[in-house]
């Protein structure tokens, strides 16, 4: 055995750690695992969300091999997180937390199933794990769906048609089968709409697509399902967000599957890992939830946007290739590498006497997986909801295996210990197998540990070589948007915060501006949060202080159209309306303005520029210390404008309203 382990260690540079010798435990208790009286609920899997919003934005720009390595850590079975479920945003052209994601139908007569990056991501996930379950959920909708109202249910047939089009497009253009569809993320549901959605799905041969409602709280959806039998008949899964491991009586009484359809949302250090370990078990132990889905999959958005690094891993530097496999990835593996959707939980209480929890699952074919967590209160706080106090102490747990598990003789052991003193956590290490004697074994558990005990021998922890070291965003950056067949609809590193900026082929311009970047949202969407009244896309390094931004601009909207370039932009995401910075605007009426805010209320300078619509002009914004100046077509237009704050921020470009406009030859120094 020693020789064999030596060979495995040599082959893989990862393998079992040394056997652990626990301290003298204070408390001993016994637990029985038995399937003789039937099993508990069916397990539906562990997953993560891409979107809500634009959380995977920077991932697509990574060079190979790093991009594929990141995807392997997320989706490849028995490798890293080995996720069972991928949930994506159905882009709605509106701000949905850290940016906007493009809709497949910007306008009523428009359909395009190649925008954004969620199609690509779903295909990459399926390529690695053909069995992964796919979920689509809208956060926002294009404005035409509401015919001017900020509400998607006035014309439910239009909304259902729009959502079903997305599902049909996924199949027709990408050969993707969507398994589950949601209603409207964390907003009101309409029973009439849900029933019509089911009818529309069935009419298009999509009977296999299941409906999740309502991606908010357990109520009122559970109560309404109890009194409306037709609604009860069409909702397959009740999905709640951030349930704090608890459910409600009405939800249980529906007899439906209960999911934590969005959870975690916590900074991905070891406390985030502790949060994730605790809820992965306790969502079932306390709340009967059979799937838990993390927001979000991978932190591939500028870290200074809201909820920076609230993801299972971090990949926010495509320009350097640097990424980090954070501890929540290995906490996920404790469950995902040793279970599959379709397995069943055992009927067992699951609370440990000394604090902490365990779950046990079986495939019904003799395999058994037990996951134990002993996370302490202060080391497992999630971002929400508040966590009531509890105590966890070292303990000895003795398990009795009965029923069909009585014959199990050996269990493989995988172990993680989150070390908050030294910071030297040990993550997902394979220990020596555990011998089961006459259906009985004991384990000494310390605080802040995770154990997986399993009959499966498929677990694996072997990574890729270290990625390149981190680097700041390049201090000189150009994009001329000259690309004939771009792999994605958006230019690299631009992070749209209101509106959508896409590559555009300008057929009417025979000159230097055939390939441009164009803002394409021309009607305020049905929003999820307070999008700005202007459109804006940010880029670069949030820590930048002094900068020169140059860009060719083309106003398409006559009379009251306008565009801007900006520097030191200090806000985005759900706070985009409050963005401050230095904004240099030109308008179709020939005027210009310099403002200290995106809303345009804080006017620092204004005057005549002579710019007109449907012509190309070059804007240059120079910010040095507390002074800014601007050039138009290479000639000074305004100078010595005093800037008090903000002291740093991104570069940006955008438009005065939801209007068409084009940008070209973007340059930052």
UniProtKB/TrEMBL annotation:
One cellular component term from this protein's GO annotations in UniProt: lysosome
Cellular location(s): Lysosome
EC category name: hydrolase
Catalysis: reaction(s): a D-galactosylceramide + H2O = an N-acyl-sphingoid base + D-galactose; beta-D-galactosyl-(1<->1)-sphing-4-enine + H2O = sphing-4-enine + D-galactose
Example GO biological process: galactosylceramide catabolic process
Any one GO molecular function term: galactosylceramidase activity
Domain spans labelled Glycosyl hydrolase family 59 catalytic: 43-337
Domain Glycosyl hydrolase family 59 C-terminal lectin: 496-669
Protein EC: 3.2.1.46
Keywords carried by this UniProt record: Disulfide bond, Glycoprotein, Glycosidase, Hydrolase, Lipid degradation, Lipid metabolism, Lysosome, Signal, Sphingolipid metabolism
Record-annotated active site: 186 (proton donor/acceptor), 262 (nucleophile)
Domain spans labelled Glycosyl hydrolase family 59 central: 345-459
Location, primary (coarse class): other
SUPFAM superfamilies per record: (Trans)glycosidases
Pfam families, alphabetized: Glyco_hydro_59, Glyco_hydro_59_C, Glyco_hydro_59M
InterPro entries: Aldolase_TIM (IPR013785), GH (IPR017853), GH59_C (IPR049162), GH59_cat (IPR049161), Glyco_hydro_59 (IPR001286), Glyco_hydro_59_dom (IPR035394)
Family: Belongs to the glycosyl hydrolase 59 family.
Protein name: Galactocerebrosidase
Organism classification: Eukaryota, Metazoa, Chordata, Craniata, Vertebrata
Gene (name only): Galc
């Amino acid at each position: 055995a020693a020789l064999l382990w030596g060979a495995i260690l040599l082959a893989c540079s990862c393998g079992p750690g040394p056997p652990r010798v626990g301290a003298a435990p204070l408390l001993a208790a016994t637990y029985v695992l038995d399937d003789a009286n039937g099993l508990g609920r069916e397990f539906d899997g562990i997953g993560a969300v891409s979107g809500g919003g634009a959380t995977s934005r920077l991932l697509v720009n990574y060079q190979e091999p790093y991009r594929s390595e990141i995807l392997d850590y997320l989706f490849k079975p028995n490798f890293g997180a080995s996720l069972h479920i991928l949930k994506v945003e159905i882009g709605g052209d509106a701000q949905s937390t850290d940016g906007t994601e493009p809709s497949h139908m910007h306008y009523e007569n428009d359909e395009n199933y190649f925008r954004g990056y969620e199609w690509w991501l779903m295909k990459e996930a399926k390529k690695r794990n053909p069995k992964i379950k796919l979920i689509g959920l809208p956060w926002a909708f294009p404005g035409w769906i509401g015919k001017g109202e900020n509400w998607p249910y006035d014309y439910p047939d239009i909304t259902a048609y729009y959502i079903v089009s997305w599902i049909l497009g996924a199949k027709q253009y990408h050969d993707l089968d969507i398994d589950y569809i949601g209603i409207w993320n964390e907003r009101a549901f309409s029973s009439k709409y849900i029933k019509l959605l089911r009818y529309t799905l069935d009419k298009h041969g999509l009977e296999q697509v299941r409906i999740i409602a309502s991606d908010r709280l357990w109520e009122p959806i559970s109560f309404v399902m109890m009194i409306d039998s037709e609604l009860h008949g069409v909702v397959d899964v009740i999905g709640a967000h951030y349930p704090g491991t608890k459910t409600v009586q009405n939800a249980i009484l529906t007899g439906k599957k209960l999911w934590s359809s969005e959870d975690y949302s916590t900074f991905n250090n070891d406390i985030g890992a502790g949060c994730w370990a605790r809820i992965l078990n306790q969502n079932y132990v306390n709340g009967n939830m059979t799937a838990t889905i993390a927001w979000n999959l991978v932190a591939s958005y500028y870290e200074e946007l809201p909820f920076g690094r609230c993801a299972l891993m971090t990949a926010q530097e495509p320009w350097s290739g640097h990424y980090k496999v954070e501890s929540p990835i290995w906490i996920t593996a404790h469950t995902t590498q040793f279970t599959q959707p379709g397995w069943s939980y055992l009927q067992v209480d699951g609370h440990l006497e000394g604090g902490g929890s365990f779950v046990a699952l079986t495939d019904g074919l003799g395999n058994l997986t037990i996951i134990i967590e002993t996370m302490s209160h202060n080391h497992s706080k999630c971002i929400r909801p508040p966590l009531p106090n509890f105590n966890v102490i070292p303990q000895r747990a003795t398990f009795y295996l009965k029923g069909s598990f009585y014959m199990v003789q050996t269990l493989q052991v995988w172990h993680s210990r989150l070390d908050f003193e030294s910071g030297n956590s040990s993550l997902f290490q394979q220990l020596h197998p555990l011998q089961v004697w006459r259906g009985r074994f004991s384990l000494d558990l310390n605080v802040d540990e995770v154990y997986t005990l399993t009959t499966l021998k498929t677990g694996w922890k072997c990574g890729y070589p270290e990625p390149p070291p981190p680097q700041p965003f390049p201090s000189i950056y150009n994009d001329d948007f000259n690309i004939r067949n771009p792999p994605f609809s958006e230019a690299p590193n631009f992070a749209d915060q209101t509106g959508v900026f896409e590559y555009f082929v300008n057929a009417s311009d025979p000159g230097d501006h055939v390939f441009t970047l164009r803002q394409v949202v021309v009607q305020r969407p049905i929003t999820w949060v307070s999008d700005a009244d202007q459109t804006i896309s940010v880029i670069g390094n949030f820590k930048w202080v002094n900068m020169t931004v140059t860009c060719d601009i083309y106003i398409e909207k006559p009379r009251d159209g306008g565009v801007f370039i900006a520097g030191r932009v200090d806000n985005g995401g759900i706070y985009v309306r409050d963005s401050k910075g230095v904004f240099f605007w030109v308008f179709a009426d020939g005027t210009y303005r310099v403002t200290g805010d995106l809303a345009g209320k804080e006017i620092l300078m204004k005057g005549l520029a002579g710019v007109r619509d449907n012509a190309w002009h070059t804007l240059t914004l120079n910010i040095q210390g507390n002074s800014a100046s601007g050039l138009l077509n290479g000639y000074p237009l305004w100078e010595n404008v005093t800037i008090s704050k903000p002291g740093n921020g991104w570069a940006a470009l955008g438009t005065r309203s939801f209007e068409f406009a084009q940008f070209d030859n973007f340059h930052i120094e």
